[in-house]
C-alpha cells in the first residue's frame, strides 16, 4: 500500500485507529472458522461516521479497495480480504454507540459496531424487545446483521433485518454520507434506498448506523419439544399452530435425529427429553406481551389436535425457564456439536414450506447416492422455509478427501434447491463462497440489474470486490 495513504490514515484516525502490527492483524484476516484467509497491509478502525467518510474518500481517490468488516462471524467469507495484500480492511468495531431509544416510536438507533446482544439488552432495559436472535448474538454486530439481512429463530413472527430496519446511515464509496436515519413506518416518497444496502454485504457502501424497530417485551411463553415421524408432520403441525395461535407463534424449529444426536454427544449438560429414538424433532414456542396470556392452554389445544391427527410420536412441554433453556440448547448447540465430527460443509437454503418434505427426501437420496455413508445434519426454521443443510463426512473418511468433494456435494444441494423453486442462500449471504455459483441459479436479467446497481454506486469497483456478484 502507498506509504502516503498509510500516513494519511494515521492522520485521520490516530494511533488507536490503525492496526498494522502483523500479530494484531491476524484476527482480521481470517473468518472465525478459519475457512477463508487473506492478507492486508492495514486495518482501519474509525470511531465515527465522519472518519468512515474520510477513509472512503481517500481510498476512492487513490484506488484502494475496501473490505468492510463487523463481528467477522459470517459463514461465506464476505468480510475477509483477498490475498493480494493491497486491500484495506475497514472494521466497524469502534462504532459502538447507542444513539437513542424512543419508547413512543418503539425504535432504537445504534451504530454499526454495536453487538447484537447489546441491542437486545438496551431494548430490554427500556421495557421493549429487539427480536433478532441467532447463535452468534454475543459477537456479531448490527452492521453485519444488516449487510447479510440476518434472520434467526424468530423470523416466523418478526421477519428478517429488512422488516426490523426503519432507516440507515450509509457512507457511499466516494465518501459522501447519506443520512437515512428516519424512523418512519410510512414514507412513500420514491425508491426505498435502505433496502439496497441491507443484504448488499458491503459492496455498495458502509452502513454506519441504523434505526431499528422494537416490539413489546415478552411476558408469557410456552415451549414444547415434540417428536415427529417425518418433515411432513412438521408442515402439518405448523399449519395447526398458525390456525390456533396466530401471531403468538414466535418459533418453530425442525431438527433431524442426526442433528440432535451430535448435540447429545458433544454439548455438555444436554439430555434427551424422551430417552428414546425418533427420526425428527421440532421445537415450537408461543409468546405474548401479556403477563397472564393463556399460552399453556393454547399449546395444549395444538398438541391435542396434533396427537388426534397422529402427527406426533411424543411431546414434552417445558415447565419453567430452566427447562425452556434446556430445550433451546438442543437446537442452538447443533452447529458447535457438528464441528466435533470433523469438517462441516454448510448450506443455508430456503424452499417453499409446502415442499420441504419432498425436498428433504429428494436431496437426502441424491446426497447418499453421491457419497454413501454421508451424515446429513438438517435443521432450521420451518416457519420461513429456511433449512441449514449441513454435511459431515462418513465415519472413517479422511478430512481432506471429504473437503475435496465440497463443490460436488454443494451442487447436489443447490440443484435440488433450484428444482424446488428455492434459494441457495436464505440468511448467510453469498460472500465469496457462492458468488460464482449464483450465476447458475439466478436469471441473467436479475444479475444484470444487480450489476447495474453496483455500477451506479461503485463504478470503480472498490467496495468489497470479489464478493456477491459473479464475474462476467
Strand composition percent: 15-25%
- CA gyration radius, whole angstroms: 23 Å
CATH topology of the largest domain: Uridine Diphospho-n-acetylenolpyruvylglucosamine Reductase, domain 3
User: What's the architecture of the largest domain in CATH terms?
Assistant: 2-Layer Sandwich
Query: Which structural category fits the helices and strands?
Result: alpha+beta
Please state the average pLDDT score.
Answer: 96
Number of domains: 4
Largest sheet: 8 strands, antiparallel
The geometry reads as globular
Structural write-up:
The protein has 472 residues and is an alpha+beta fold. The protein folds into four domains: 3-91, Uridine Diphospho-n-acetylenolpyruvylglucosamine Reductase, domain 2 (2-Layer Sandwich), CATH 3.30.43; 98-216, Uridine Diphospho-n-acetylenolpyruvylglucosamine Reductase, domain 3 (2-Layer Sandwich), CATH 3.30.465.10; 220-335, Alpha-Beta Plaits (2-Layer Sandwich), CATH 3.30.70; 341-427, Alpha-Beta Plaits (2-Layer Sandwich). 34% of the residues lie in helices and 22% in strands. It is built from 17 helices and 19 strands. The strands form four sheets. Strands 12, 13, 14, 15, 16, 17, 18 and 19 form an eight-stranded antiparallel sheet that branches. A five-stranded antiparallel sheet has the order 5-6-10-8-9. A hairpin with a 5-residue loop joins strand 8 and strand 9. Helix 1 (3-13) packs antiparallel against helix 3 (49-62), helix 9 (231-245) crosses helix 11 and helix 14 (356-370) runs antiparallel to helix 16 (406-419). The longest helix has 15 residues, at 231-245. The chain is globular and about 70 Å long. The protein starts with a helix and ends in a 15-residue tail after the last helix. The mean pLDDT is 96.
Amino acid at each position: 500500500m502507498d506509504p502516503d495513504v498509510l500516513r494519511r490514515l494515521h492522520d485521520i484516525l490516530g494511533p488507536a485507529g490503525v492496526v498494522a502490527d502483523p500479530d494484531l492483524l491476524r484476527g482480521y484476516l481470517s473468518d472465525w472458522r478459519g475457512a477463508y484467509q487473506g492478507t492486508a497491509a492495514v486495518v482501519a478502525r474509525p470511531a465515527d461516521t465522519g472518519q468512515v467518510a474520510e477513509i472512503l474518500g481517500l481510498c476512492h481517490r487513490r484506488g484502494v479497495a475496501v473490505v468492510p468488516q463487523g463481528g467477522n462471524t459470517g459463514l461465506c467469507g464476505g468480510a475477509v480480504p483477498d490475498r493480494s495484500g493491497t486491500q484495506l480492511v475497514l472494521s466497524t468495531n469502534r462504532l459502538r454507540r447507542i444513539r437513542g431509544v424512543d419508547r413512543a416510536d418503539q425504535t432504537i438507533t445504534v451504530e454499526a459496531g454495536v453487538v447484537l446482544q447489546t441491542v437486545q439488552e438496551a431494548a430490554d432495559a427500556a421495557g421493549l424487545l429487539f427480536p433478532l436472535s441467532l447463535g452468534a448474538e454475543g459477537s456479531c454486530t448490527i452492521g453485519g446483521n444488516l449487510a447479510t439481512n440476518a434472520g434467526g429463530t424468530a423470523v416466523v413472527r418478526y421477519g428478517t433485518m429488512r422488516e426490523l430496519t426503519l432507516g440507515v446511515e450509509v457512507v457511499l464509496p466516494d465518501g459522501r454520507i447519506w443520512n437515512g436515519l428516519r424512523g418512519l413506518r410510512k414514507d412513500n416518497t420514491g425508491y426505498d434506498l435502505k433496502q439496497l444496502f441491507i443484504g448488499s454485504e458491503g459492496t455498495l457502501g458502509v452502513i454506519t448506523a441504523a434505526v431499528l424497530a422494537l416490539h413489546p417485551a415478552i411476558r408469557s411463553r410456552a415451549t414444547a419439544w415434540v417428536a415427529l415421524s417425518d418433515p411432513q408432520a412438521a408442515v402439518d403441525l405448523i399449519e395447526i399452530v398458525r390456525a390456533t395461535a396466530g401471531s403468538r407463534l414466535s418459533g418453530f424449529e425442525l431438527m433431524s435425529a442426526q442433528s440432535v444426536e451430535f448435540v447429545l454427544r458433544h454439548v455438555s449438560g444436554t439430555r434427551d427429553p424422551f430417552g428414546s429414538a425418533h427420526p425428527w424433532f421440532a421445537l415450537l414456542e408461543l409468546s405474548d406481551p401479556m403477563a397472564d396470556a393463556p399460552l399453556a392452554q393454547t399449546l395444549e389445544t395444538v398438541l391435542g389436535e396434533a396427537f388426534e391427527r397422529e402427527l406426533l410420536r411424543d411431546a414434552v412441554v417445558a415447565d419453567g425457564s430452566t427447562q425452556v433453556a434446556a430445550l433451546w440448547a438442543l437446537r442452538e448447540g447443533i452447529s458447535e456439536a457438528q464441528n466435533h465430527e470433523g469438517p462441516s460443509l454448510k448450506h443455508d437454503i430456503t424452499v417453499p414450506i409446502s415442499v420441504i418434505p419432498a425436498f428433504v427426501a429428494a436431496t437426502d437420496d441424491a446426497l447418499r447416492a453421491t457419497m454413501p455413508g454421508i451424515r446429513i445434519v438438517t435443521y432450521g426454521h420451518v416457519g420461513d422455509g429456511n433449512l441449514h443443510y449441513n454435511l459431515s463426512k462418513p465415519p472413517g473418511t479422511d478430512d481432506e478427501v471429504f473437503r475435496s468433494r465440497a463443490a460436488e456435494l454443494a451442487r447436489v444441494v443447490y440443484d435440488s434447491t433450484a428444482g424446488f423453486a428455492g434459494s441457495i442462500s436464505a440468511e448467510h449471504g453469498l460472500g465469496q463462497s457462492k458468488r460464482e455459483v449464483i450465476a447458475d441459479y439466478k436469471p441473467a436479467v436479475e444479475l444484470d440489474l444487480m450489476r447495474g446497481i453496483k455500477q451506479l454506486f461503485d463504478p470503480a469497483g472498490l467496495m468489497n470486490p470479489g464478493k456477491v456478484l459473479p464475474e462476467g
